């Protein structure tokens, strides 16, 4: 596709449920990032993939959060036992890798935990 | 710990005026400094970026000024227009791991 695609755009789930958020990066981009953005805040780094492997997952807040990128393209962010504090916009971005400077964001997935 | 500190939190400017947003950092491993513009309900979009070996970069009405010794950089929007009303984020990339860190954002309102 032309840009980074994220689905779903909106997700309302009950506290305690499991959620998956999907990111389809720009074709050919080897770097993929997940960020979380709360209202009125800047994007907060969660995890960075270079290819299939997680090069840096230091931003994941706890073990309820997990992300995969099995074939080096599409990535899924998985949140177990959701809590109301997980409500935020989850942004995905992709880039050309360590030699590339620019990352491009998708529109985000707005998660609301009720 | 906020890796990139941004100010002001909000800014109101008259149409035609200059909007100035400031950012500061401490990590000397940062080697690339982009600015992003975000409209409500949209993802951040790259606006302009600079590397630390350059003190200024201009693209149209947007200019980044970079002070390497002070570890500060700023975005100047000349002839601000109502369509510039958005939230602006500065960011910095670490050369040790390719992570990007963002400021907390500045909500800009340009009054007609």
Average of per-residue pLDDT values of chain B: 94
**If you compute it from the alpha carbons, what radius of gyration of chain A comes out, rounded to the nearest whole angstrom?**
13 Å
Secondary-structure element order of chain A, as H and E? EEEEEEEEEEE
Uncertain regions spanning at least 5 consecutive residues of chain A: none
Number of helices, where a helix is a run of at least 4 consecutive DSSP H or I residues of chain A: 0
Radius of gyration of chain B: 13 Å
Q: List the total number of helices of chain B.
A: 0
Strand content of chain B: over 45%
Oligomeric category: heterodimer
What's the end-to-end separation of chain A, in Å? 33 Å
Q: Give the N-to-C terminal Cα separation of chain B.
A: 37 Å
The biggest beta sheet of chain A reads: 7 strands, mixed
Flag low-confidence runs of chain B.
none
Q: State the helicity of chain A in percent bands.
A: under 10%
Mean pLDDT of chain A: 93
Number of strands of chain A: 11
Number of strands of chain B: 11
Strand content of chain A: over 45%
* Protein structure class of chain A: mainly beta
């Amino acid at each position: 596709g032309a840009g980074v695609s994220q689905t779903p755009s909106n997700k309302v789930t009950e506290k305690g449920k499991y959620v998956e958020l999907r990111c389809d990066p720009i074709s050919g981009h080897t770097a993929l990032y997940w960020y979380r953005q709360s209202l009125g805040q800047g994007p907060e780094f969660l995890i960075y993939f270079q290819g299939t492997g997680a090069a840096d997952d230091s931003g994941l807040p706890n073990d309820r959060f997990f992300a995969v990128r099995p074939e080096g393209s599409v990535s899924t962010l998985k949140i177990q036992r959701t809590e109301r504090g997980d409500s935020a916009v989850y942004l995905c971005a992709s880039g050309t890798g360590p030699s590339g400077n620019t990352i491009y964001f998708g529109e985000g997935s707005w998660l609301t935990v009720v | 710990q906020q890796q990139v500190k941004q100010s002001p939190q909000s800014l109101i400017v008259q149409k035609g005026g200059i909007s100035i947003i400031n950012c500061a950092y401490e990590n000397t491993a940062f080697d690339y400094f982009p600015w992003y513009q975000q409209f409500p309900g949209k993802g951040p979009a790259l606006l302009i970026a600079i590397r630390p070996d350059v003190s200024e970069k201009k693209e149209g009405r947007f200019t980044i000024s970079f002070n390497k010794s002070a570890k500060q950089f700023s975005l100047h929007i000349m002839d601000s227009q109502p369509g510039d009303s958005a939230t602006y984020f500065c960011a910095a990339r670490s050369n040790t791991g390719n992570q990007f860190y963002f400021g907390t954002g500045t909500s800009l309102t340009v009054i007609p």
